[in-house]
Description:
- By secondary structure, the protein is mainly α.
- It has helices at residues 2-22, 28-32, 36-39, 58-70, 78-82, 87-98, 111-124, 130-133, 148-165, 170-181, 184-190, and one strand spanning 135-136.
Amino acid sequence: MKQRWSMWALAAGVLSLSATAFAAAPTPEMISFSCAGCHGTNGGSAGLTMPSLASQSKTAIVDAMKKFKSGERPSTVMGRLAKGYSEADFNLMAEYFSKQKFHPTQQVVDAAKVKKGAALQEANCSRCHLEEGKEGKDDTPVMASQWLTYLQMQMALYRVRQAQDAGKNGREGQAAVQGRYRSAAPFLRQRQIREKTT
Length: 198
């Protein structure tokens, strides 16, 4: 009986070791699957408040995930999700999404607002968001063709940070900062998108 028990224990040990030995490390695509629910398959967002991750720079994605994890970047959900991943996981995600094809959104835009936003984007955003927002400099995300609602949310957060920095200049400085970015969103969302003809 004792010999039979030992054989079962030995067989169980061998099976558990062999399963561990043959378990493959997660691929970048496997890790990205958990992002698809909000950010879309292959990083092409279908949600108005969710950014597309496809074709974003690897550096921008890793930087954002680290900031979500540390709490430096405010969020409702991403901070909690990021805590479940390691820096190696962030790199795998970023590797995958940075290689995905750009995902243009289909939105109707107001041509007059686009024209006004173009000048604002050039004057205020083009140093970091290159090629009319279609490319990012280093860790700066691609903003072109993101959903309007998402762009408005991000610009509001950016204005808050800028207003905090301008707080030394009083209300006039804060109002100027807030007004500066308000009209750039329609321009950025229309990049590679059809324009409204009316």
